[in-house]
Structure formats: C-alpha cells, structure tokens
C-alpha cells in the first residue's frame, strides 16, 4: 500500500527464522505506524505454527504474540507489496529475485543489509533524503536505496556464510540459539536504520 513501508522476511519453511525476525522487528518499531512487517517461506510448511524452540528463543528476546503465526508461501503478490525483502540466505535471495526481478534492488540477505546499514552514515542518509520533507514512507524507501548504494563502501566478505543466518530446523537447541545470535543483531541494525532515516537532517 502507498501509505505503508512493507518489509518481507523470508526463510525456507517460515516456521523458525523468518517469523522470529518478523516478530522481533515488529516489536522494535511498533511505535512507527507506517511500517508493516510480514514473513513467508520459499518452500513454506503452509499452515504450520512457529517451531516451539524458535518461539521460546524469540520470547526470550522480547517477541510477543507468536502463537498466531501460520507459515505461508512467498508469492508474487507479497513481493510486489514489499519495499524491502530480507532473506536468511543467498539462495533464498536468489529465489525471490528469480521469482520477481523487480525486487532485485530492494532484496538483501538480512545480514548483508545489516552490514551495509552499518556503513550508511547519517550524512549519507541526509544527503539522499534532502528533498523529502514529511512523508515517512518515502523516507524509508529512499533509505533502502541509500543502503544499496553503500555496497561500494564495503569490501567483500571472506566467507559468504557471514551474510547468512544458519538454518536451525531439525537441529539441537544450541543451533537454534546460534541462529538467533546471528539474527538478532542484524534485526537491531534494521530497526536502527529505520529510526535514523526518520530523524536524520542534513547538516
């Protein structure tokens, strides 16, 4: 919708990583009414609830209302409606881009977006947002473009796995915790970028 900034979190089954990311980010930006956060899976276990261990870990980080989650499949309609698509792996990003090439410039792995957001300074945001006065949705869409342009500011990672959140499905509880420890700081970085984009002014 025109008056919303929509973020789509994507993993494989939509029962572990992406619903955790969806709910944690929703909690962090709940006071920003224009932001809408969704999740889906590239090979979703459609209709299934969030995995119990993932629920428990997400709750330990402050997520709420997890019981109502039901997995759904990534669709072209969801991609078209999304201003920012954040996947857990590079393969999932490839999936969504091949499904809808129009999302290429606004699709990232979650940890890639976090890495780029960390080098997107307030000065860079202010310069890009200079002509946008009041409309928060336009500010956030422009901020995504700013983050994308920051690719030129960072060197390639030595290990591509650094851009991914490991899949905990079917793994011991310790792997679920490891996955969350990769995911949560990246989500915090997304929330920080959203807030910075809404308050930054050109100096």
Characteristics of this structure?
hydrolase; alpha/beta; 203 residues; single chain; Rossmann fold; 4-stranded parallel sheet; 8 helices; LMW_PTPase; protein phosphatase
Description:
This protein is of the alpha/beta class and 203 residues long. It has one domain (5-199): Rossmann fold (3-Layer(aba) Sandwich), CATH 3.40.50.2300. The chain contains eight helices and four strands; from the N terminus they run βαβααβαβαααα. It has a four-stranded parallel beta sheet, with helices on both faces. Helix 1 (17-28) runs parallel beside helix 8 (173-199) and helix 7 (136-149) packs across helix 8 (173-199). It is globular and about 50 Å long. 43% of the residues are buried. The model has no long low-confidence stretch (mean pLDDT 93).
Helical stretch tally: 8
Output the CATH topology. Rossmann fold
CATH-level-4 superfamily name: Response regulator
Q: Which band does the percent of strand residues land in?
A: 5-15%
Organism: Corynebacterium ammoniagenes (Brevibacterium ammoniagenes)
Active site: 11 (nucleophile), 17
Domain Phosphotyrosine protein phosphatase I: 5-193
Family: Belongs to the low molecular weight phosphotyrosine protein phosphatase family.
Layout of strands and helices, then pairs:
Elements: E1 5-11, H1 17-28, E2 35-41, H2 52-60, H3 76-80, E3 84-87, H4 90-99, E4 107-109, H5 110-119, H6 122-129, H7 136-149, H8 173-199
Parallel strand pairs: 1-2, 1-3, 3-4
Helix pairs in contact: 1-8, 2-8, 5-8, 6-7, 7-8
């Amino acid at each position: 919708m025109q008056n919303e900034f929509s973020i789509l979190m994507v993993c494989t089954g939509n029962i572990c990583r992406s619903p955790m990311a969806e709910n944690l980010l929703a909690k962090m930006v709940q006071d920003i009414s224009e932001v809408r956060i969704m999740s889906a899976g590239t090979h979703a276990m459609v209709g299934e609830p969030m995995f119990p261990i993932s629920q428990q870990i997400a709750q330990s980080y402050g997520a709420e209302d997890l019981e109502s989650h039901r997995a759904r499949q990534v669709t072209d309609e969801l991609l078209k409606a999304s201003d920012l698509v954040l996947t857990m792996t590079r393969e999932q990003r490839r999936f969504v881009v091949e499904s809808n090439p129009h999302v290429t410039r606004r699709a990232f792995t979650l940890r890639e977006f976090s890495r780029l957001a960390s080098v997107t300074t307030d000065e860079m945001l202010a310069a890009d947002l200079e002509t946008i006065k009041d409309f928060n949705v336009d500010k956030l869409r422009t901020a995504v473009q700013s983050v994308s342009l920051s690719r030129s500011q960072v060197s390639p990672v030595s290990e591509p796995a650094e851009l991914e959140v490991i899949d905990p499905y079917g793994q011991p509880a310790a792997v679920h915790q490891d996955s969350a420890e990769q995911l949560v700081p990246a989500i915090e970085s997304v929330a920080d970028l959203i807030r910075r984009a809404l308050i930054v002014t050109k100096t």
